[in-house]
Design a protein that fits this description.
alpha+beta; 2,3-Dihydroxybiphenyl 1,2-Dioxygenase, domain 1; eight-stranded mixed β-sheet; two-stranded antiparallel sheet; 2 helices; 10 strands; about 15% helix
């Protein structure tokens, strides 16, 4: 069977996990499980999975787990998702690195689709996020 439609999803960007305290979350995932800290802000931190660009993102906001998937364009992804009979839960909006949209598949699974149209996070020597580097 040949594929008619090119894949919408490029890669898993991250799995976001809520923690009550960022330092104890880092202690568990970085220090005890060996994930590499690659960036941090006051209320979140990104840890890279080995041999992959995907991240575990720890955050202290009061929300549940979240799966973020990289797409070429969040706006185009929203249209494609709706055309495939999925639902746009939150219309595309700007984020620091690009654009983002929240969608739901026909079985109720929510996904966050994002693009890097503005660039990638830039960090200082302490891995603190200091800006965005345009690609």
């Amino acid at each position: 069977m040949s594929r008619v439609t090119p894949p919408l999803f490029k890669r898993i960007d991250c799995v976001r996990l809520p923690v009550s305290d960022l330092e104890s979350g880092l202690s568990f995932y970085r220090d005890n499980l060996g994930l590499e800290l690659i960036w941090r802000t006051e209320d979140s931190a990104g840890l890279r999975l080995p041999n992959d660009e995907s991240e575990i993102v720890l955050y202290t906001e009061d929300r549940g787990e979240e799966i973020d998937i990289t797409v070429e364009s969040a706006d185009e992804a929203a249209r494609s998702f709706e055309s495939a009979r999925g639902e746009v839960v939150v219309q595309p909006f700007d984020i620091g690195i690009g654009r983002c949209v929240v969608v739901k598949d026909p079985w109720g699974n929510e996904l966050v689709l994002l693009d890097n149209s503005k660039g990638r996070l830039v960090t200082d020597a302490g891995l603190n996020v200091v800006g965005v580097d345009k690609l």
